[in-house]
Amino acid sequence: MTGSAGRPRWRGVDGILLYDKPLHVSSNQALQRVRRLFQAEKAGHTGSLDPLASGMLPLCFGSATKVCAYLLDSDKVYTARLALGARTSTGDREGEVVETAAVPASLDLEAACARLTGQIRQIPPMYSALKKDGERLYALARRGEEVPREARTVTVHSLAARRLNEVTLELRVHCSKGTYVRTLGEDLALALGTVGHLASLHRDWVAPFRGAPLVTDALLAAAQAAGDGALLGLLQPVEAALPDWPRIDLEPGAAEDIRHGRAVAHPLPPAEAERFVRLHAGATLLALGRIAPGATEVAPIRLLGTAAGVR
Hints:
By secondary structure, the chain is of the alpha+beta class. It is built from eight helices and 18 strands.
């Protein structure tokens, strides 16, 4: 459906699409392409994947954009291939080779991976979307500029490697937000006594969507051909992003109070730490709520009021 001059008629669409981002497409290009397909008024993604990376990119539409921040904080799992013997300007195969080194015949992969597991410090690469004085680092890098970057603490929950041939390793990485797998690959190569760069990178899943099927471009095209109902049926409900948040079902009067921003009593036992909950009015996820330590009331922090589909 399009409006004047071929422009799409935007509509209210709510839900999360677990998109299988293809290679050679930026995260924003992927978002805009799929957004136009759904004709969604509001859309956002939950953490960039490089154009040379593929895999799970959760796309949030409508009220789901209000939970994007929680998904940005999620753990992620990647499968990558590390090419040993050559370091590039970008840390992946897109860059120019800037250093070469011999690859040892024998590699102690287990010991090297152990050194990079747990809380580690990483210096973000110049080819990244971080900003310096309002400008993206990758824009500075493309001009040949390099600026100091502060090391950041990230968590590598697990790192495993196996040798595919003399110069190629396959990596499996489970890490926290903010981890640069390109940098991790370079550091692993150094720990093995050589240099390296990523030859490929695939994001297997983003928590809490472990093992969830991905929606490919082919599946999107088939659903579009089958009709709007099939297309909307590919969306996950907003609450799928928050499976560990307790659900509270509200009576009509309490639901009306929440709609007006007022706190209401909750049925959960008091707790010493603050808790975040999902507030439901029947089948509808009405709001996200916060319970202060020891409190007997829950206050709304985000009004939603929708489920997956069109509103």
